[in-house]
Patatin (Bowmanella pacifica), 375 residues
Amino acid sequence: MLQRHRFALLLTGGGARAAYQIGVLKAITSLLPRNHSLPFPIICGTSAGAINATALACFASCYHLGVRKLEWVWKNFHPQQVYQSDMLPLFGYLAGNQLQMLRTATNGNRPSSLLNNQPLRQLLKKTLDFERIDRNLLTGHLKAISITASSFSSNDSISFFQGIPELSPWQRSKRQGVKTQLNVEHLMASSAIPLVFPPVKIEEQYFGDGSIHQLSPLSSPIHLGAEKILIIGVEQPKPDRRHQLQDYPSSAMIAGHLLDTIFADTLHSDLERLYRINHTLSLLNDKQRKATHLKPVECLVINPGANINELASEHYRRLPYGIRTLMRIMGAKPDSQSSLLSYLMFEGHFCQAVMDQGLKDGLQRLDEIRAFLEI
């Protein structure tokens, strides 16, 4: 596997949209024998992408099995497995948060958020065996896995990584890599969507969704030795610019725009910077390139070819009544233009539809993926 240690997989954040990544990963299985190990020994994930990445790392010795396990979980998802969705506990949680706001700051000991995601913690503990990561590192099926979270204490992007002994921590402006033994709390921190899910305390710092402060999403795979990075995002096609809003934007629409920005915009900026560096290096001779201490890095980006928001609207009625009520209060209805629904719809039928889109897109670009991964 050493010859493949320059290949990395980067899975971005996106809540329930991350089901799309499983479809693309399933398309790649058609290129490999059933007992083949992970074709990208460096795996980096943020938010829901971090959960997918960790599951793949646990099954790095058999890529097909890892993808099948992930597919089974996503297609059988129910919101109650991720956050409290029944009417009484849902609004009881919200009421408790409001009461806390009336207390003095010294008495506020409970996290404040829109939803209580304790069920997700139990699901992760039940389905992920973190000891497998160590075994896959020892056998060479895995080089490193990185999970990125955002520190509310330092405002830095922190990439918690577990990898081979040769890998060292790194420190850059507004970002750092911390070598550690990964566990469920790192995943809970990385996937704590701002305002929606509560922050998570790790040691002496509070962390939230890894996309909040992630100014350079490509930093982790590059620091871990990647030279070719396959990026599976969840950004849907841009809407028709001629469309104009007729009404004042609702809270749900504003929240959706914020999440779209957090999960997608920094990747575009980082890719532009990477392409400029690659172009500059191509103009230098060998001696000059060596003096820069930089290396060219290739990227292949795959994003949904269909409107995920429309898929979410089609499955709106499948959401529990309590969540539908909360969404209506915020202005998120089946015919609304908010993308908030698509981030929170952890519902099996919707996730299956999104995975099907990922499989379709992956198969359409299979020759391109094969060439990029040198399979």
